[in-house]
């Protein structure tokens, strides 16, 4: 039964793997001119390419606790800041949309000499990864879906994202942090690890107003990707925080049921930013999946 593929991880399962780096991390970073924007990237490691796409309204630093551990396990981990986020800069005439975010990611792969990669997307990064699959499935060796969703936004969610765009426009990107942190991290983490909340707040503040507005529009108007799930033929890992209130586990279970051979890993004690909040467990899930599917 496919339900047997659901694996519940406990926080201590990956002890000894998180934040471990290789002796030679092969770290490079910089800005690339892609589709008229300046896209910031970080590349760590020298192995199998893995491109990780962040969610709204964050940056590639969301994966700061994953890069070294995954590089030590044999991956070249590439993270980017979508245009208008982090250290990336977009022209005023093209702040971003779903097709552009996907084209930017493929453009970074081109400029870094990466013909194929495991491509992972967290939250908004998931719809971007689906768009990349629809555009260029030959560029994938694997797919990782992290606290994301394939369903289109319903009426209530559409208005939530419209409200985020309006708030960013009125009060600035920093005003979104209180709205988002309560869902990014569990209450226990916010109380006991205030540094985690401060780190993610700092990332949220780096976004531009135009980026916040464009990303909110992408989330509000994203297409139905359920039909796309049935076309995915590469090994697929789905990572989900059990306490995610943005896109709860039910949505990840639906994705698993629609992607042949996919694996779902549920991480207890983690909310929407499970990849950061419980990085040890997420890293172990990715490493074990990669070995089992020979995508490393």
UniProtKB/TrEMBL annotation:
Give every AB hydrolase-1 domain span.
49-278
One Pfam family of this protein, by short name?
A: Abhydrolase_1
The record's listing under InterPro entries reads: AB_hydrolase (IPR050471), AB_hydrolase_1 (IPR000073), AB_hydrolase_fold (IPR029058), Epox_hydrolase-like (IPR000639)
The GO terms this record gives for MF are: catalytic activity
Question: Which residues are the signal sequence here?
Answer: 1-20
Q: Which domain of life is it from?
A: Bacteria
**SUPFAM superfamilies xrefs:** alpha/beta-Hydrolases
Keywords on record:
Signal
What name has this protein been given in UniProt?
A: AB hydrolase-1 domain-containing protein
Q: Which organism is it from?
A: Deinococcus indicus
């Amino acid at each position: 039964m496919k339900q047997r593929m659901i694996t519940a991880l406990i926080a201590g399962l990956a002890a000894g793997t998180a934040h471990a780096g290789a002796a030679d991390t092969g770290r490079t970073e910089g800005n690339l001119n892609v589709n008229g924007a300046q896209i910031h990237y970080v590349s760590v490691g020298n192995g199998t390419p893995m491109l990780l796409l962040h969610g709204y309204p964050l940056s590639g630093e969301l994966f700061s606790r994953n890069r070294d551990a995954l590089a030590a396990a044999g991956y070249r981990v590439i993270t980017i800041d979508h245009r208008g986020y982090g250290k990336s800069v977009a022209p005023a005439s093209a702040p971003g949309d779903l097709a552009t975010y996907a084209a930017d990611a493929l453009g970074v792969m081109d400029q870094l000499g990466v013909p194929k990669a495991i491509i992972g997307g967290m939250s908004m990064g998931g719809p971007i990864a689906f768009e990349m699959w629809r555009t260029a499935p030959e560029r994938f060796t694997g797919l990782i879906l992290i606290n994301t969703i394939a369903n289109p936004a319903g009426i209530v969610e559409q208005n939530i994202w419209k409200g985020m765009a309006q708030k960013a426009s009125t009060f600035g990107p920093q005003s979104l942090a209180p709205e988002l942190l309560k869902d990014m991290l569990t209450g226990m983490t916010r109380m006991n690890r205030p540094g985690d909340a401060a780190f993610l707040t700092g990332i949220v503040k780096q976004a531009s107003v135009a980026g916040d507005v464009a990303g909110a529009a992408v989330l509000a108007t994203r297409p139905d990707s359920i039909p796309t799930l049935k076309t995915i033929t590469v090994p697929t890992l789905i990572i989900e925080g059990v306490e995610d209130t943005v896109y709860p586990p039910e949505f990840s279970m639906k994705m698993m049921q629609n992607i042949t051979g996919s694996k779902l890993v549920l991480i207890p004690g983690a909310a929407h930013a499970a990849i950061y909040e419980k990085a040890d467990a997420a890293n172990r899930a990715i490493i074990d999946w990669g070995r089992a599917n020979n995508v490393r």
